[in-house]
């Protein structure tokens, strides 16, 4: 009996996974599929960054950001360090 119950539970779980991966929300929710370039840029541009220089396999262009403490940091400040 417990083997049958376990088999049924696994089957239901597998069907749920398939359903979640196949089902797509409608585009009426305000989301639309953007081309790769537009999805990368987002709605905000990074001030001081020239995105035309961004290419796969090339170093990232230098840019500045303001931390939560109000300090301005540059990408070049972290040269040689690992960032993600």
Task: Please outline what is shown here.
The chain is mainly alpha-helical and 84 residues long. The chain is built from two helices and two strands.
Question: What is the succession of H and E elements?
Answer: HHEE
The proportion of strand residues reads 5-15%
Overall pLDDT metric: 76
What is the radius of gyration computed over CA atoms, rounded to a whole number of angstroms? 23 Å
Helix/strand-derived category reads mainly alpha
Order of strands across the biggest sheet? 1-2
Shape: elongated
Number of strands: 2
In DSSP terms, counting alpha (H) and pi (I) runs of 4 or more, how many helices?
A: 2
Largest sheet: 2 strands, antiparallel
**Spatial separation of the terminal alpha carbons:** 50 Å
As residue ranges, the low-confidence spans are none
> Helical residue percent?
25-40%
Task: Describe the protein's architecture and organization.
- The protein is 32% helix and 7% strand.
- It has 84 residues and is mainly alpha-helical.
- The protein has a two-stranded antiparallel ribbon.
- Strand 1 (64-66) and strand 2 form a beta hairpin.
- The longest helix is centred in the first third of the chain and has 21 residues, at 2-22.
- The relative contact order is 0.07.
- The model has no long low-confidence stretch (mean pLDDT 76).
